[in-house]
User: What shape does this take?
Amino acid sequence: MIYSTIQHVLPMFGFEGSYLDVEEIPSGHINNTYHLTYTDGDRLHHYTLQRINSYVFKDPMAVMRNIQMVTKHLRLSMERDGIDPHRRVLELIPTIEKQIMYRDNEGHYWRAYIFIENATAHDEVKVPAHFYEAGRGFGEFQKRLTDFPISRLSYTIPNFHNTPHRFDAFMESVANNRAGRAHSVQAEINFLRERRDMMGQIVQLIDSNELPLRVTHNDTKINNVMIDDNTGKAVCVIDLDTVMPGSSLYDFGDAIRFGASTAVEDEPDVSKISLDLEKFKLFTRGFVEETDGFLTKTELKLLPIGAEVLTCELVMRFLTDYLDGDLYFKVHSPEHNLIRTRAQMQLMIDMETKHDDMMAYVEGLIG
Assistant: This one.
């Protein structure tokens, strides 16, 4: 079944050996991802094949150019420091025509990487030390890209974290009520209206030059850092589709939102959802250890604001998609995006009660 979906694509890439097996990787809301195994005598070759979601990414070539430039920069940075970049940086597999992606006859875009073996992308924080390592991994990612010429990057999703712009789009979705669902979510709509000003803080600070633009990942869930199965150390930051100019607060904030919650992102029982301050501290310590020295004091001090803004932004994004009829995120039921919305609302409410604790911990780290 899976093979029939991808068999027309496989000959288009420069894979070594003969096809042996495929397994779909279900994690991730956006792209379709497959683990390929090829054989060459007694040797196995492992690859990752992805179909890029062109509804989300309107310009797949811009996405791929960003990835190509950023991975090259990361690789050179590591080599300068005497670090072997193998397994530490995503490695693209070119097509047989030496291109960075393939467009099939149905208009679908495909890309391939060398699969990172003996490492795992964890969908939740089961081992606390892994979250510390994720903090280090995302922090190092930003650090090694401080000297990247940011003007060369395309905005793969325009206004991705522009919360004032997203709020306007959200209100438009409320008015259009495309899926006929607005009447049932008035409490959720009011929740966002009450936090409109809070959500705009980071954009305002960037516009006033109080926060600098950085090369940021913009989707820093823990499952976007590969953790070595043997050492438990962060190996490689993956899923670079949303690498764009942004704020360090975005990357920090989304990681906390996802990884420091006591429940999964779509937990239907909101009584299980809160901010785990110990996990918050683990990630924060790892992130600050890698970034203190190049992030400004203002950036470091305001890191917890990123967690609150990004959590509320995800409330807005999930609810917008629910109102629009589930066009953006993968859903497993008609209520899936609403479940996600309410889960993030509960997390946001708990973050608000722990705001002072988060700010105090960061102050203690940076002095």
About this structure: The longest helix spans residues 303-324.
